[in-house]
Write a structure and sequence with these properties.
The structure is a homodimer. Chain A is of the alpha/beta class. The first copy, chain A, has 17 helices and 16 strands. In chain A, helix 3 packs antiparallel against helix 17, helix 4 packs across helix 11 and helix 11 crosses helix 17. At the A-B interface, helix 4 and helix 10 of A face helix 4 and helix 10 of B.
Chain lengths: 489, 489
Amino acid sequence: MKTRLNLALLGLLVLRASAGVLDNRVDQYGSDAAKGVDSCTVPDSLVQEIKGYQPIVNKIVSKIVGGEFAGKTWDSLAELVDTFGARLSGSEQLEKSIDYVQEQMKLDGLENVHTEDAPVPHWVRGYESAQLVAPFKKNLPLLGLGTTVGTPRGGIIADVVAVESFEEFETLKPEQVKGKIVVFVPQWEGYGKTVVYRSKGASVASRKGAVATLIRSVTPFSIGSPHTGGQDYDEGVNKIPSACITVEDAEMILRKYRRGETITIHLEMDDRNFEPFVSRNTIGELVGTTYTNSSVVVVSGHLDSWDVGVGAMDDGGGALISWKALTYLKAMGLRPRRTIRAILWTGEELGLWGGKAYKDAHKENEKKEFNFFFESDIGTFEPRGLDFTGNKDAECVFREVVKLMTPLNATQFETPSDGGPDISHWTSRGFPGASLMNKNEKYFWFHHSAGDSMAVEDPKNLDKCTALWAAAAYVIADLSISIPKYVSD
Amino acid sequence: MKTRLNLALLGLLVLRASAGVLDNRVDQYGSDAAKGVDSCTVPDSLVQEIKGYQPIVNKIVSKIVGGEFAGKTWDSLAELVDTFGARLSGSEQLEKSIDYVQEQMKLDGLENVHTEDAPVPHWVRGYESAQLVAPFKKNLPLLGLGTTVGTPRGGIIADVVAVESFEEFETLKPEQVKGKIVVFVPQWEGYGKTVVYRSKGASVASRKGAVATLIRSVTPFSIGSPHTGGQDYDEGVNKIPSACITVEDAEMILRKYRRGETITIHLEMDDRNFEPFVSRNTIGELVGTTYTNSSVVVVSGHLDSWDVGVGAMDDGGGALISWKALTYLKAMGLRPRRTIRAILWTGEELGLWGGKAYKDAHKENEKKEFNFFFESDIGTFEPRGLDFTGNKDAECVFREVVKLMTPLNATQFETPSDGGPDISHWTSRGFPGASLMNKNEKYFWFHHSAGDSMAVEDPKNLDKCTALWAAAAYVIADLSISIPKYVSD
């Protein structure tokens, strides 16, 4: 998962006012985006039809959680991340893992397995070091932020200005900041609110003449690990090095600065930006019995990761459940009317590049091609249910589908969705989509850090998430109607 | 805190069979080490006397937790660790912090403030790097273990043998191990049981010809940080480099090894052992009204720390509450009959050296000099009560004292003590002592890692621990009797 900021920028809120396109039978029971939950008017025949899928859902759950597939998703994820490690955009490891997944999808019997090109940024972390040199010597573990520039060779030695917020920084005069390293130490106020210091700290500090910026890692809890993530420079600002340091060190520096101490840091970073690189989205299908390349149900997660940890959580889990949902449905002989397409996005972490390329390539015929988008990118802990983004008519149908997830104790429903950065390329324009709600309260403890490993993933929870994914995708893909979408022309 | 292994080695179990020495009035109510809780026969007059301290305990609690001293212990601890950082035995930072604490104790009005010499090991962490070089490249964060030797310049490149346990390692032939880096990946089974891999892994691996050993960090929970700690080489073994890697990386290596992959690591460590260094225990007193240098009540924690993190938890908190308990009692005008002596041990982490030197220096007259030993070295989270090591008579009296801690909701009692490594130099020989029980379930998450910082310490909890410490020490030091001890001659 990149940032909720991206979601906001991409306009996650559904464009309900857009001219609508209803397909199939949905117009039979009318639409009213302003209606509440209670006002859903799904025709009883459709409600009954959806209820009729309960035995199939039960079978899917039983096979994946307690049957022959139990534990296999965790094993496959472990083999992927143990074999290739971290999979940063532009890296050989990501491309090797794409080749590997393609081969494995074929071995699993998935259909139309292929890749589609997507240009991605190519940024490489080099040697990185930050040393507190005064008032005492201390190594400051750090992680440069994606797209950051490096320091000159030999690094920068500069005094520190430390602030808790942009508001506090605003009170400083440029002569207080010029030539300094600015340390931003925001309190954690949730990811969406706090991440702006990571994504915009360098630009804000640069405008007053700072030579570098170090930011408190964007996490509510720390055991001494820095967390990386994306950042970008505003147009026209002098590009300065930008990295996250640990919560512990950032808070220490702020206390010392506020006591009036002179704090000096030696910062050296050899991070570099290269020309964009052509990576690939990885695609496999379970082709529908009735529709093949139209009204497709997409299940997805991203295969790329940050270059620290091994990306088992972000987003190995989401990628694996999308891939394996198809593997297990196929093995069970369950083939729905519409095609279910697993897409393992590339280039998500550096800015949703895989999704963007796929959207552009499939733009011309997209209203016909796509029915529904699933994405899992906020953890694969124990599932709670599904959250949804889309028009009211689609929501009402989807609510009925979620009710089928009783055997997984995963019937919670929320709207709009809190996840789904890659599919926001579509959901932000009126296509319906859903994200996996799970017990991810600790997600940001591990996010973009060395802690993103198999230790975060639990075999049983991964089974449950895969079962939920497979069951929901199967039902949506097999219903007598397509899910209504309101997409402007 | 060093290790529970040390506690065991030092014979924490009370030598109850030793010839006893009863002082003052304790023999009035008999002794029976075999008696259970219910069989305590503390004379009613003494029970009533102890109950009579409730108003003083209430006052101490109210001043420290809710009054003029609230929050001050956290502030002082922050100033200490922010100013000097980590305080490893043999380091300039430790000696500077000892000078600083002495000065501050004097400013606080403590009496007989001085230091006493203690020889400590002098081991220095140098450049440390571990790289997985095959099957893919990955940095493996690591921390060399205290007293480990380094590698030759340029490091070692060797294939890996990975095992989960010493039992599994026993099944390997020397020719399978010779020239290899042995990776021990024990499951967490509690600190006392699991730490043997850290303390003895190098010796075990060396005997079969390993060239180095890397051990899963000794912690139940990880976010990508390695944990250091002590180790020692058995007599006569070839000394090989020994370090801990993260839980995440250790488990990955074990999985890969079990799949039959060849794993190669480039390990470079420039850690070195130097001649022992003379450090100092730091001492301050609140001199008793009746007894000055006899029947002393010791409150203690260690001032040295590991060289990662800043030792706010291990054991800055224990050191500070011991020092500040005296500061606040003095400021409140509360001076008990016996002297309360705060001792901030040095050289604890590398083997309880401060306590040993102090024991040796005070040996001749120790039975007269000491009445009771408190030590806090297993966290200063929210206090639960006090645990105790000593003879049954002393235990019965102490149980009554613990009952006074109702205003802190800290009346739990356990015996024998689970903490107190430095005071085990005395408690293992029949002197009575106590350790601070606290809600330290997450202690080992941070222990000996970059996570040992002020972020672990909560101001309110530190206040409560200080109040508990001050109140318990005051009552013990002021009672009409000394606490009975059974120490052989």
